[in-house]
Design goal:
Blueprint (H helix, E strand, L loop, with lengths): L3 E9 L2 E7 L4 E5 L6 H13 L7 H4 L7 E7 L4 E6 L4 E5 L2 E3 L10 E4 L11 H15 L1 H21 L6 H41 L5 E6 L5 H10 L1 H7 L10 E6 L2 E2 H4 L2 H23 L4 E5 L7 H10 L5 E5 L10 E2 L1
Helix pairs in contact: 3-4, 4-5, 5-6, 5-9
Amino acid sequence: MNIIKRVKLNNFRCHDEFDLDCNRPTTLIIGENGSGKTSILEAIYLALRGKSFKGVDKEILRNNADYYRAEIELADAQKIIIRFNGNKKEFEIDGKKSLRLPKKNRYPVVLFEPDDIYLVGSSPSRRRDYFDELFKQINENYGIILGKYNKALRQRNDLLKEETISRDDLFSWNVMCANYGAEIIQWRVNNLAKINNKMTDIYRNIAKNDDSCEIKYLGFNVDENKYLQNLENNYEKDRILGYTTFGIHRDDYEFIFNNKKADGSASRGENRSMILALKFIEAQILEQEVGKKPVVLLDDIFSELDEMRQRHLIDNFKNYQMIITSTAVPSEMRVDKKL
């Protein structure tokens, strides 16, 4: 069953006016680079998740325009309308307006961007952001706790920059960072275990071989007391550097291929097959944990995949609504919109 039925945009990035019917399970949008394909997916993501995956509202606003408007009609006839007047954004659903998308109206999304293909060898912050966004969708509480941790971390870092700082000044912030940080660690470890339970089997289904793969959590798996102790022990170093050197904000994830670090040992094709496997698992876990089939947004990734992996992508997502952008028409697919 389709979730998205229609997309209408006004002054949304490069789009003056735009209208798209999404009546089929798979919608293909074709256009040159810079024609606004990604902006359509951005509007859908904004309507389903309550935020953009690409930029802030003032960046979304079309040049010289006073407002932008995005209207997403769902299959149940419900409409989500987002308006931004240059200063304030509001969501309207069934005539009710709010400054944020209500939790009950949020919907799971699998977003596949070209940069995701390079996740294996990307920066630690890129991998952290990727898994944080996934874990936020799996459970809203993860995002709430992570937000509280980041707020406490900013306060601690601000204090560390002051010349008259003492250990006692940091204690309350150490306690909060330890409390929230230890909870985030458990979320990350538990969710990663769910992914790894499926990773090798799905990878082998794609690659048709007996290779193995997993994702390793490169963080300190400590309880709240040990976390607090580490913060206390790092006081002198943190004070000199002016920032917090220990914590979940510095964690990383490492892809392992046949018991070796994938970055450097796995081929380009093997790395891409691992990312495909991860995306398929993402859809499965979101459906299991949230109880809703996610909408799958594929942003111009066919140029990054060979024909075999393209087929796997389409086959594995065939039971989900897909909205795809591309610069060229993949084989045996009908174009729904040409920009």
